[in-house]
């Protein structure tokens, strides 16, 4: 790993378990039967460990949408053409996308970052950190160099740090990039299969089955084209043999620039003890990448929702996270995380504002 990124990862502090224990004790003094607010209580405790505050805050949230293109889109692996990426970036800037609506609903600061859209883009409000004009088609060559992968991760770190300086108290990262479920499935398969892909032997049927199991319809491919997408991913992994234990090897060979940016933003959140609400499939693969770069990142992550994309449950299981919502969504952009945000806010308000048995003059359960 490049020295500066390695140094950054090593500087990420642990969370504060003691603050979590204090929060758990404090929750039992509030005017409710012990444990009666269920997972909201567990969320409050996790937020306390992350922030070090018994009464944590998550508002205002920040949302960063990273946009980039994928050379592998030319293999016909998406139901939509590549130009939709740039068109959607303009839509984000005009406020008309789903993530804009939900960002307004939750009072989020929203930033859109071009880390690698395949055409020149200049628009008011767009943050340009273009590392290259889309990745290369990874069916033929590595998606990007390791230097480019690191540059995209560092762009994510920089943008998250800028929003954190502006005062956000939680972070949602979203993405836009036609073809990025293909890159995400390939990365997830590499993390999942590890040694079995890295070696030089033929990929056996069991490994091929595992790879195919994490590939789905993305934007809505018909079954026949999902099969084609599976074949593209199996061939790409057989060609590049990424090492699942080397996150930058996986990212540079079969990843995406926006996935790199998202992972970088999560590293920055962990460094600054800011909770991250994880979105759907692509975001969760970015989270796996960030956790591979620095395992401590896992402690600041909350899973916002379960996407319908079949690989998402596999990615969530690898992260050992249980999502808050399961609404049959499969959009990306950070939309599922933004919709889940009010639950996280509810956990904060509960621990921050509820009366204690003592302050409200309510008899607690000890005397019964
Ligand atoms: C109009 C439109 C808006 C989107 N917003 C997010 N995605 C989502 O779909 C893409 C991934 O799916 P695939 O790998 O099948 O291309 C990503 O851009 C993702 O963010 C969109 C897709 C479309 C078409
Ligand atoms: O879950 C996601 O993030 C997702 C699923 C399909 C297409 N785009 C995004």
Automatic annotation (TrEMBL):
Keyword Glycosyltransferase tagged: yes
GO MF annotation list: nicotinate-nucleotide-dimethylbenzimidazole phosphoribosyltransferase activity
InterPro entries: Nict_dMeBzImd_PRibTrfase, Nict_dMeBzImd_PRibTrfase_bact, Nict_dMeBzImd_PRibTrfase_N, Nict_dMeBzImd_PRibTrfase_sf
Catalytic activity: 5,6-dimethylbenzimidazole + nicotinate beta-D-ribonucleotide = alpha-ribazole 5'-phosphate + nicotinate + H(+)
Keywords from the named record: Cobalamin biosynthesis, Glycosyltransferase, Transferase
Pfam families, per database record: DBI_PRT
One of the GO BP terms on file: cobalamin biosynthetic process
Enzyme Commission number(s): 2.4.2.21
Keyword Glycosyltransferase carried by entry: yes
Known pathway: Nucleoside biosynthesis; alpha-ribazole biosynthesis; alpha-ribazole from 5,6-dimethylbenzimidazole: step 1/2
Active site positions: 333 (proton acceptor)
UniProt-listed HAMAP family: CobT (MF_00230)
Function: Catalyzes the synthesis of alpha-ribazole-5'-phosphate from nicotinate mononucleotide (NAMN) and 5,6-dimethylbenzimidazole (DMB).
The family this protein is said to belong to: Belongs to the CobT family.
Stated name of the protein: Nicotinate-nucleotide--dimethylbenzimidazole phosphoribosyltransferase
Native species: Caldalkalibacillus thermarum (strain TA2.A1)
């Amino acid at each position: 790993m490049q020295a500066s990124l390695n140094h950054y990862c090593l500087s990420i502090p642990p969370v504060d378990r003691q603050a979590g224990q204090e929060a758990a004790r404090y929750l039992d003094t509030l005017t409710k039967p012990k444990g009666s607010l269920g997972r909201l209580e567990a969320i409050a405790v996790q937020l306390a460990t992350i922030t070090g505050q018994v009464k944590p805050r998550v508002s205002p949230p920040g949302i960063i949408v990273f946009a980039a293109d994928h050379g592998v889109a030319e293999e016909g692996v998406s139901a939509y053409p590549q130009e939709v990426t740039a068109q959607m970036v303009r839509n984000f800037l005009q406020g008309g996308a789903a993530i804009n609506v939900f960002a307004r609903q939750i009072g989020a600061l929203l930033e859109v970052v071009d880390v690698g859209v395949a055409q020149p883009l200049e628009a008011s409000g767009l943050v340009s950190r273009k590392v290259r004009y889309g990745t290369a088609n990874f069916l033929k060559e590595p998606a990007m160099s390791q230097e480019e992968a690191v540059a995209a991760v560092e762009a994510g770190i920089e943008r998250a740090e800028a929003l954190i300086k502006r005062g956000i108290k939680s972070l949602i990262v979203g993405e836009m990039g036609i073809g990025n479920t293909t890159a995400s499935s390939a990365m997830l398969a590499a993390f999942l299969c590890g040694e079995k892909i890295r070696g030089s032997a033929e990929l056996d049927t069991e490994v091929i089955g595992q790879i195919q199991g994490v590939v789905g319809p993305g934007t809505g491919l018909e079954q026949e084209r999902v099969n084609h997408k599976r074949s593209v991913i199996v061939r790409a992994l057989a060609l590049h043999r990424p090492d699942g234990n080397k996150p930058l090897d996986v990212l540079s060979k079969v990843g995406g620039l926006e996935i790199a940016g998202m992972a970088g933003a999560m590293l920055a959140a962990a460094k600054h003890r800011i909770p991250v609400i994880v979105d759907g499939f692509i975001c969760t693969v970015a989270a796996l990448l960030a956790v591979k770069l620095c395992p401590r990142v896992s402690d600041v992550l909350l899973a916002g929702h379960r996407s319908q994309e079949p690989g998402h449950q596999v990615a969530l299981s690898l992260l050992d996270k249980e999502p808050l919502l399961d609404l049959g969504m499969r959009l990306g952009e950070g939309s599922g995380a933004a919709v889940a945000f009010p639950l996280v806010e509810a956990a904060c308000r509960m621990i921050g504002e509820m009366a204690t048995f003592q302050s409200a003059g309510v008899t607690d359960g000890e005397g019964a």
